[in-house]
Amino acid sequence: MESIGPLEQSLHTARARVLADLAAGEVAAADVVSMVEDSVVQRRWWVEQWPEGAEFVAGLVAQDVQDALLETYGRWPLCPVCGSGDPHALEVEPELGPDPYWVCHKAGVKVAAVGSLGTAMGGVSPS
Q: What's the start-to-end Cα distance of the chain, in Å?
């Protein structure tokens, strides 16, 4: 069996983390999963050009999917921290860095690591 290299591993991990966050928000429809796959394909090329960027891929895929969803579904993921006021989306920080987090800029708090949104949304695990 062929072993998976670090580049492929970073892409698999990014895909899994973003899919987990989508499932936590019950947004993992087939067309949305296709958005994740499209982003992973694009980011594969990006990481091949810049292997040192492998640890940044999860945050980039999350941002890609967030942008794609904005065009078709609206804002995602909605902030679970702010209970009042206009619904607003969380943002990924750092924009280009390791260990990306979903952050609410309104409240100024880190909500959850990319891939761990389910725990911030009330701990509902996907069935």
A: 31
Query: What's the pLDDT tens digit per position in 38-90?
Result: 999 999 999 999 999 999 999 999 999 999 999 888 899 999 988 777 889 99
Q: Which residues are paired to 89 by β-bridges?
A: 78
> How confident is the model over 116-123, as a mean pLDDT?
79
Q: For 39-46, which contacts have Cβ atoms below 8 Å and span 24 or more sequence positions? A: 39/64, 39/65, 39/68, 40/11, 40/14, 40/15, 43/11, 43/14, 44/7, 44/11
Q: At 118, which amino acid appears?
A: G
Cβ density class 81-111: b for 16+ within 10 Å, e for less: beeeeeeebbbbbeeeeeebbbbbeeeeeeb
Residue type, position 65, single letter: V
Q: What pTM did the predictor assign?
A: 0.87
- Is 25 in contact with 117 (CB distance < 8 Å)? yes
